[in-house]
Amino acid sequence: MKNNPVTGSISPGKRSRLAEGYAQADAERSVTVSLPSRGQLLLPLMRCLEANGGSASPAEVYDQVAAEYGATTEVRSAEAIFVGSGPRNLFERQVRHAQQFGKIKGLIEARRRGHWSLTDKAFGVLENARPGVVLAVFETSRGLALWGHVEEAASLIEPGSVDTIFTSPPYPVLSQKEYGGPKDAATWLSWMFDLVDLWRPLLAPGGSMFINLGAEVYRRGQPFQSLYLERFAVGMEDRCGMQLAQRWWWHNPAKLGSIHWVSIRRRRLKQTIEPIYWWVNVKDGIQDAANNQMVLQPYKDKKRPYKTGIRPSGIDIGVGAFDKDNGGAIPSTLIIKANSSSNDPYRRACRAAGIKIHPATFPESLPERAILMTTQPGDLVLDPFFGSGSTGVVAERLGRRWIGIDRARGYLRGAALRFTDAVMTDFPPDAMSR
Ligand SMILES: C[S@@+](CC[C@H](N)C(=O)[O-])C[C@H]1O[C@@H](n2cnc3c(N)ncnc32)[C@H](O)[C@@H]1O
User: What's residue 87's pLDDT?
Assistant: First the structure.
């Protein structure tokens, strides 16, 4: 213990309390790891309480907060010996401080003994739907945007009414994104399979389900990839009974790849391609009625799209072959589209309205190809992870009906700005400009 200025003029009781305080401060100083502050832990703690349905005991959330914050094992297990007690875990102590900080700010309350609960104000701050509550946020002439958890909102949709699902869930990446989703691949897989079990009955027989996923998911601390995509594909067929129609690929030349393994450590290449799995609800022998004539592209060289002669594969392309005009070229499974725009109409509208821009939108060309190929005007398209509403925007433009679900109200407010005829159903009219 360091020298302290406790003088003889202080009562013995106070002196001993002061000495204890100095001892605690010394114990903490002797810990070399840098602990997160209570302010840094408040949001991760709130997110974990939210993931537990809004309330949990401290013991239930310590590990979850550590994972959400991204604490190293060293930080999670840091201990100090305090006067009058044995070793105490310092990370857990900081989480308790964060809880007290949240209480002072009116974000956390102790509604149940031994449990920390989020207040209404906290749900407002998180802008995420309360468990068990699904609200319509806005509607257009063809579509409806629901604010709620995908697990709950799906039950509001009529079974067999959806013709195509096009969606991009949060990927199981180690650095948690603000828009949620389980981080570890095993939890993510069982979450997704449960969701697919909910979505499949909503699909019409022969209906399609397109799922865009990230191809680059590293194992913690290693330059090796998770095999979650392979496991997902196998489980979709074996567990969920879906049939794989095709894998499409989105090449986003503007994608950066892993900062750590690519840019800093230089151990891997830039991953710029993401798969879009196209599954079909083959039921009672009914197959999908997809039609690639709906997505034909202008011929590059109308006269001779392929050179004549024997190709390396042995196929002989004779004179006159492929000369027939079939109305356009059949596109490949590769969609090339850079996702680097920072000044498109959606982003400009969000900035003007002071609404947060969604950090992970996909380009409209992705749902466009899928919707054109697998649906007819008037059909219903569902995006259960709606985000900024890209799928709805395309569906609306192509004359399809749509339903979008997202748990984050802020994103739905931004999505509403992309539709000229959106009617807000849960906000006063001036809410759009707030
Ligand atoms: C990758 S983003 C989708 C972005 C969208 N494709 C677009 O173009 O804007 C995933 C979305 O899922 C939402 N989300 C995550 N977990 C959810 C849940 N349990 N229920 C409903 N929405 C959820 C997030 O708020 C986020 O907007």
Answer: 85
Ligand 1: does its nearest atom lie under 6 Å from the Cβ of 188?
A: no
Ligand 1 atom with minimal separation from the 415 CA: 9
Question: Domain residue spans in the chain?
Answer: 31-125, 127-296+331-433
CA of 253 to the centre of ligand 1 (A): 23
Question: At what angle are helices 58-69 and 90-104 packed, to 10 degrees?
Answer: 100
| Three-state DSSP class for residue 425 | coil
Q: Nearest CA to 335 among 299, 366, 305?
A: 366
Q: Is the pLDDT of residue 28 over 80?
A: no
Mean of pLDDT over the chain: 87
CATH topology of domain 31-125: Arc Repressor Mutant, subunit A (1.10.10)
Ligand 1 midpoint to CA 360 (Å): 9
Q: 31-125 and 127-296+331-433: same fold?
A: no
Dist CA 58 CA 70 (whole Å): 18
CB 1 within 8 A of CB 26: yes
- Closest C-alpha to 406, from 378, 431, 385: 385
Is 218:225 a contact under the CB 8 Å cutoff?
Answer: yes
Instruction: Please name the amino acid found at residue 149.
Output: H
Higher per-residue confidence, 124 vs 330: 330
Which of 10-19, 170-179, 225-234 has the highest mean predicted lDDT (pLDDT)?
Answer: 225-234
Q: Which atom of ligand 1 is nearest to the CA of 171?
A: 1
The residue whose CA has the least distance to atom 2 of ligand 1 is 387
CATH architecture, domain 127-296+331-433:
3-Layer(aba) Sandwich (3.40)
